[in-house]
Structure formats: C-alpha cells, structure tokens
Write a structure and sequence with these properties.
It is found in: Membrane. This protein has 245 residues and is mostly helical. It contains 8 helices and 4 strands.
C-alpha cells in the first residue's frame, strides 16, 4: 500500500461531523466564557460608578457576578472534557474507522455508551438553549441604553426633553428599588454611553451572546452525530455482528 493510499485511509477514518462540532464548541465556549467573564467585571464597574453610590446597594449584584464567574470556569472545563469525549466516541463509531482498523464488532457496552451520550447531549442542548436566551438579556439592556443615548444626541436642542430620557438599572433587577441614584438621565446618560467602559462591555456581551449561539449549534451538530452513531451500532447489532462486553 502506497503513502497516498495510507493517507486517504487515515483521512477516511476521521469523523468529520464530530470534528466540526468539536471545533465549533471550543470556539463558542471560548467566546462565551472569556468575553462573558470580562463583561461581568466591566458591568460591575459601570454600576458602581454611575448607578450606585452606596456599596450596600450593589453588594448583592457583586456577589452574583462573582458566582457567575466561578460558574464560567466550571463550564469551560466541563465542555472541554465533554467535547474531547464526544470526539473520541465519534472516532470509535464512525463507519470509516471500521474499514481502517479492520474487523469491527459492535458490543452491547458500545451501544449503551452511545445511547448515554445521546441523552446527555440532548439534556445539555435544552439547558444551553436557556443559557442562550439568558445571555440575550444583557445585550438587550445595553442595546436599550445605546438607543436612548442616540435619541439624546438627536434631541440635544431641547434640554427639557433630554432630561426625561433615562435608563433605570432598578427596573432590570440590577439594583434594589431603594438604591440611589439607580438611574442615569439626560446628558449624564449620554456621557456614560461615550465612555470606553460602556462600549467595551457592550461589545463583550455581544461576543458572549454569539459564543453561546455557536455552542448551541455545536450541541445540535453533536446530537445529529451521536444519533447517527447509535443508529449504526444498532444496525450492526441487528445484523448479528454484535458482541457483549
């Protein structure tokens, strides 16, 4: 067998669907965790500087941000390991690998393992759909803030109308209702929108939202891949070439 034939057989044994899903999952999780972590830090700084004067007004928010940052560390580690395991499972069950490594025997343990991965991936996809929806909330908040600032820029000739345009962090649950000032209005809000912290935080939340979407797409791809792999193992078992562990 020549070098070309060996290379083609090796390439034929690659589970491309699982490989693409793994790359998408790595990039999506990196975006979501990296940008989300920094965006939470910048959000705390914005709230502390412009929306709250007393530490007790945003101490709960600070604890929640710290908690979510620890959750992000755990998510990054878990998805890194889980994607590696799913990729290895894809190598194991791909039909091309059967031709590459000779006789393949579908075991009962292999079929049980594939069905377990299907169940876990489906559950993760449902949970991550909620995470994806949740990650849209800060984007919505900063979008409203940016749109209000744009309106203030347009209405600069009527100061009375400008002072009535506000963003109240208390309405979004970021601060308690007794927090002071709790909101930014008029030119003060416009000044906030022109700061580097606001722009960076807005962009980071958009990137984190995009990362969550990419991760969700990767999980859907994994669902298709693991379901197909299980169907292959089930078919081999019915053809009478399966064995027990």
């Amino acid at each position: 067998m020549g070098c070309y034939d060996c290379c083609m057989k090796c390439l034929g044994g690659v589970p491309y669907c699982s490989l693409v899903a793994t790359l998408m999952c790595f990039s999506g999780i990196a975006l979501f965790c990296g940008c989300g972590h920094q965006a939470l830090t910048e959000t705390e700084r914005l709230i502390e500087t412009y929306f709250a004067r007393n530490l007790q007004d945003y101490i709960t928010l600070a604890y929640l941000i710290q908690y979510f940052q620890y959750v992000i560390y755990g998510l990054a580690s878990f998805f890194f390991l889980y994607c590696i395991v799913l990729l290895a499972e894809g190598f194991y069950t791909t039909s091309a690998a059967k031709q590459t490594f000779g006789e393949f025997r579908s075991t009962l343990c292999g079929r049980c393992l594939s069905s377990t991965f299907i169940l876990i991936t489906y559950l993760l996809a449902v949970v991550w759909l909620l995470v994806f929806a949740f990650s849209a909330l800060p984007v919505y908040f900063f979008y409203n803030m940016d749109a209000t600032c744009h309106t203030i820029t347009v209405l600069t000739e009527t100061p009375a109308s400008i002072n009535q345009l506000c963003i109240d962090a208390r309405q979004y649950g970021l601060l308690p209702w007794n927090a002071l000032p709790g909101k930014a209005c008029g030119m003060t809000l416009s000044t906030v929108c022109k700061t580097r912290e606001f722009r960076v935080t807005y962009d980071l939340f958009i990137a984190a939202f995009a990362g969550a979407g990419i991760t969700l797409l990767a999980l859907l791809t994994y669902m298709v891949s693991t379901t197909y792999n299980f169907a292959v193992l089930r078919y081999l078992g019915r053809k009478g070439i399966g064995t027990r562990c």
